[in-house]
Every structure is written in C-alpha cells, then in structure tokens.
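Input (Diketogulonate reductase-like aldo/keto reductase):
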Amino acid sequence: MNLLYTGVNQRGFGTWPLTGDTARRAVLDAVEVGYRAFDTAQMYGNEAEVGAALAECGVPRSELCITTKVHPDNYDEARFLPSVEESIKALGGEAPDLLLLHWPTLGGDVVPALTLLQNAFERGLARSIGVSNYTIAQMETAVSVLDAPVTTNQVEFHPLLDQSKLLAAASRLGIPLSAYCSIARGKIFEHPELAELGEAHGKSAAQVSLRWILQKGVSPISMSTKPKNMRANFDILDFSLSNVEMARIDELAARVHHRITASVPWAPKWDV
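Output:
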C-alpha cells in the first residue's frame, strides 16, 4: 500500500505549476527538508524533472512515493496505456507508486476510464491506483468497478471549503482523501482567525491549515519553492488543534466555501 496515504502523519510535496529546473531544484530541496512523497501529473509537464531530481537526490527509490495522474485527454484505449508508459519513462523507468485519473470523464461516465486504469494496474504499470476530483457518486462507482483498492481520492481540501459530506462518504467507502490546494493558493491569509489560532501555538496560518487537514484524517499536499516555507509546511507534527479550535475552522469552511477549481473544464457537479 502506498506510503503517502497509509501514514497518518504523511505529508506530500506537490509540484504544480513548477517546470524545468525550478521543478527539479524544488524537489531536491523538498527531499532535503524531509519529504518522501511527491505528486506530479501528465498535465503538469514536469514528470521528467521530478524523476530526474528523485534519481539524483540520494534517497533510495524504496523510500520514496511517487504519484502521477493521467490526463483526461488520454482516457481512451488508444492513448491510455501509451501515455502511462511515457510517464513511467519520464519518471525514471519504474512504475509510479500511485497512478490516478486526474479528473472525472467529461459527460459523467467514469466507467471506461476506470476500466483502463484497472488494466494499467494489472499490467504492472502502477503499484496502486486511485482517482482525483471524484464526487460521492463517482467514488461509489470506482469502488464497484475497480478490483484493486482505491488508494485515494485527491481533492481540493482546505479551511475555506466545506468538504464534510465528501469526507464522510469517503470514510464510509474506505477511500482515504488527500488534499491539494491545502492553503487555498494563499487565500487563507485573508482570514485572520487562522493566524490568531496559530499565535496560540507559535505557528503560522499555513501550518494551522495543514494541521487541520491532517487532523481530519486527510493527507495534505503542499508546494513551495522556498526551503524555509517547505520546512514550515513539513513541521506540523509538534502541535495539535483542540476540538474547539477544529470546530472554529469547520465553521469558517462552511461559511466561506471557496472552491478554487469551480470553473475547471473537467469539473463535475460537486457535492455541497
């Protein structure tokens, strides 16, 4: 099973929208900080840089967790497996620890893409498989279609978005969630209550946000090009939010309900 989503204290390093040497350098710095789980995608255009950095970082491949995601344009029999093989080549030649469908299929029928994902897994092109941006109904379909466990549903998850319904359904279905946009692309800094909560713990608003996600049982994925910020995002295990503090952030999420990915072309009808 994939280490990113089985470790209760696991934190992932995201690589969107980094490209070129910026991506390579950021991954190397993240390894130095302590990250071992790395997230990329065909859509990001940086699989080769991520793969190169992890090959030269000095950490054994067995200690690393690499996630990549199949672009929706490749959800057909002619392109799916070749695209995954290209991803494997770009990442250094070994199957990714986790292969995800990046978005639900346009039109809503997710079964064909899930079948192709299962086929890739059976061919040894991924050590585990999962989905991203799936709704409750789509998660239910994934569980019914896939023979392999659904290792994660990677979704937008942060203190400005109420994902309580999705989280409850994921728990019921046995699908761990992982969180992208963990600090809402900086929007959390517009809400002083997060900074106020951080002051009580000697932490920043970003660290409070990431800790809230972690205490929800969700694996946070964060990105920075600055080692200082990488380290701060990683160092979230030395404090805990109380039930009262967690509830206060829950209230913020329900009140603001800001979804960054609302207008993405592949976005499904979200659960609210």
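The longest strand covers residues 150-156.
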